[in-house]
Design a protein that fits this description.
By secondary structure, the protein is α+β, with helices and mostly antiparallel strands. It has helices spanning 10-16, 74-77; strands at 25-29, 34-35, 38-39, 43-54, 60-65.
């Protein structure tokens, strides 16, 4: 992986090197914040692993989920595959 580059923010460094630092990444989502004035819960997609990143500020990070996304969630997430 090499030496961390100083051009990435501390947040970017944390995401890139999360596994080396003993952390895990868990993906949560919700379709909308509120419905009829009620805050909706987050749904868990599971743990993810770092794949790659592009750019600096902003940084786009590509993750791979450890499990497939349930088919019912795919339309809400608007995923491009």
């Amino acid at each position: 992986m090499g030496t961390p580059s100083p051009r990435w923010s501390s947040t970017g460094q944390r995401y890139i090197h999360y596994a080396e630092r003993g952390s895990k990444v868990l993906f949560l989502f919700r379709e909308e914040n509120k419905r009829c004035g009620v805050t909706l819960p987050f749904l868990c997609l599971g743990f993810a692993e770092y794949v790659s990143h592009e750019g600096e500020r902003p940084m786009a990070i590509r993750w791979r989920l450890q499990r497939a996304i349930p088919a019912a969630f795919v339309p809400e997430l608007a995923l491009a595959v």
